[in-house]
UniProtKB/TrEMBL annotation:
It comes from Sphaerisporangium siamense. Residues 25-302 form the ABC transmembrane type-1 domain. It is found in: Cell inner membrane. SUPFAM superfamilies: ABC transporter transmembrane region, P-loop containing nucleoside triphosphate hydrolases. Pfam families: ABC_tran. Its main location: membrane. It comes from the Bacteria. This is ATP-binding cassette subfamily B protein. The chain crosses the membrane at residues 16-41, 53-73, 140-169, 247-267. Keywords: ATP-binding, Cell inner membrane, Cell membrane, Membrane, Nucleotide-binding, Transmembrane, Transmembrane helix, Transport. GO terms for molecular function: ABC-type transporter activity; ATP binding; ATP hydrolysis activity; ATPase-coupled lipid transmembrane transporter activity.
Amino acid sequence: MRTALELYWHSARGRFALIVLLTPVAAALPIGSAWFLKAIIDGLTRAGSGPGVLPATAGLVATSLAIATIPHLTRYLRSDADRAAGRLAQERIFTAVERFTGLARFEDPRFLDRMRLAQSATAQTPGQVTQGSLETVGGIIVIAGFLGSVLALSPLMALIVLVAAAPMFAAQIGLSRRHASAMLGLSPFERREMFYRILLTSVEAAKEIRLFGAGPFLRRRMMGERERVDAGHHELDRRELAVQGGLALLSALVTGAGLLVAVRLALTGRISPGDIAMSIAALTGVQGAVTQVTASIATTHQQLLLFGHYVAVTTATSDLPAAEPPVPVPELRRGIELRDVWFRYADDHPWVLRGVDLFIPHGHTMAMVGRNGSGKSTLVKLLCRFYDPTRGAILWDGVDIREFQISELRTRIGALFQDFMQYDMSARENIGLGDPAQDGRRVEYAAESAGVHDVLAALPHGYDTLLTRIFFSEADKNNSETGVMLSGGQWQRVALARALLRGDRDLLLLDEPSSGLDPVAEHEVQARLRHTRAGRTSVLISHRLGAIRDAHRIVTLAEGRIVEVGTHDELIARDGHYAGLFRLQANAYAPGNEQLPAFAEE
């Protein structure tokens, strides 16, 4: 609760202070209104009490006006403060996400469920917890004020009202716990339903879904997940109906019993007509306040249970240990060494890398080849320190990279990943994300190096053209932000330009840099890359072996182990794994040979 209230206070102090001041005023107004009503009735029914009616009437009018206007003012202030608190909470949660420097958390389904609930909590919980807390305070003020009136009428009735509040409170807390637990339990189904929903409306999947007629199948999957979620919510609603119905009946019985007591006292002349009106208002007010307080506490409790996911995410430490204190990353002089590196993604998963020993000299290009699942892309992830080796170490000029600050290490690396991103942003931003500190000229130079400058410069708004159409319709031709769609090969060149924006860094990692290009474009890009890599330390992964034959060293991986290392000519002469793969690809291009090579990228 402290974290939620602190969010509210730091994001909207002035509005929060006004809401706090208005809460006791709004709570006291019904009590004052009831007393003014009692005075009016008693004044009208008692001889000689007429002069006191007018002030009481004026007071009743004033309280009625305040009762009518204060809730609207409070609602306005609360809505504004809710948005401010939501913005601050959202900023904090995504700031926390930036601290997760590795990839392990993003591959953990339970953590993804917690992340989704945490994001949901950022929009609702700070405001609802604050509102629930203030409503509880206001309800207690109402109960305390009206309970004095009930106590004056009948101590027994006051006791019954208080005792009746206990089961209400317990029932509401039980409902909130069950609801919070159900939200976590239903989260995997909601995530899958969202996956199918996005898939069915995704432009990337539209071609295959329509060609293969997979729409009905995916729609049934989506609706199946939706039905599971709805069934869970239906069970919650059924339980809530039973509990809330019972509580409403209990409240009505208590109020009815109080009215019977008040009428009996009036018939015996022990209370005045004004006292009857006061007792009715008091009983109704106390029961309403008790219901409000229990509901507010239950809602706050439920939101705090969900807010626990927000707290867990924002207070979680990095999935990769940080060196204390970190060693400055030196400019690479000697090279990078992988020393007896073993790796698997989880303890119950098979080994992806097994005892890898490799030295990448400074200024050399090291190419990696191997069949699917041999561990090539995993090695790239380890070099970027998205994961730490399960056993062994990776040394940068003799220093374990775990001794460096992760962010500083990554500023020394440029990379093109096999599963590169296509950002729904402008062409300039798509490339500039590779190094946000670079100016526009460097962005265009990187595009030239990747062979995509002419394409981007010819777009309707040049480099400022959006490379997407998800924000604006195609018909909106006059909008300067109307986007365009690139081909797959053009997107790969944009991603390559993003990597080459860091082409002057110590280490350049290229995982299938030309897999989506036509032969002419591939030849052009490979020539540009040879120029870019000259004199720089680089790791090149490609299933097109002709693209790597000029590498200083070629490493062949099989089942997570290094089976061969050498130049192209040395490995061909050795007639081992690499030579077999090379012949397989070469034969595919021989006249009359229709056999396709089985070798493909990881």
